What does this fold into?
Amino acid sequence: MKTLIVSLVTLLGSFALAAGYGEAGCGLGSMVMGKDGNQILAATTNGTSGSQTFGITTGTSNCTEGGAVRSAQQVPLFIEINKMVLAKDASRGQGETLSGLAHLMGCDSAKLGQTLKSNYNQIFVETGMNPQGIQSQIEKQVSANKSQACGA
It folds into this structure.
């Protein structure tokens, strides 16, 4: 029985060490101290700076393995959280939320704003403010108006 427990601990421990950070986890501490540095100091740095929580959420600060929000999920999550304010900004063709969406999509905010403003009814009214429908219509309009919405 002891052999089984030791084998499991050794096996699971090797998976943890395969990550790009040490036992203190990801965050600012892992970046400063490294994988083989002082893990107590790394954990203290992570805890006092709050960088580990931020890193896990955004997938930064050495926290790229399984972050809560991966880049493929950022746009749908952003739309779902901000749909009311995004609709208001889109109706005007400008605004902070619209700029945030443009940044996530890799678009120029002025060009995307104009595209969303001119297609407001298809994007927000016809979808009944359903986040999946909003995303689908935005992607459709961006694809149809690539040079206008996200042109280089």
Remarks:
- Residues 4-18 have pLDDT under 50 and may be disordered.
- DSSP finds ten helices and no strands in the chain.
